[in-house]
Specification:
mainly alpha
Length: 88
Amino acid sequence: MFKIIGKYVPPAAGLKPPSLWGTRARLEELFGSKGKVQATSRHFSFRYRSPQHFIEVFRTWYGPMNKTFAALDGDRERQAASGAICSS
């Protein structure tokens, strides 16, 4: 997902990649001595009605994808949607 987004819009300045947000190392970096952080790893299977539904959900509710589509014109928007469907 982030590879697709990165093709169309630059990352936000000063932010670490979202792929690090849920890692133990990043949680320790953020909260280290401020308290005890306990995390349990879990797996979840996302299910969608169709590839188009996947795009609709992510472009509506997922901030980075929402911002990406908002910044694109018609042709590049279609390319991004196609790229997300083909890579999922």
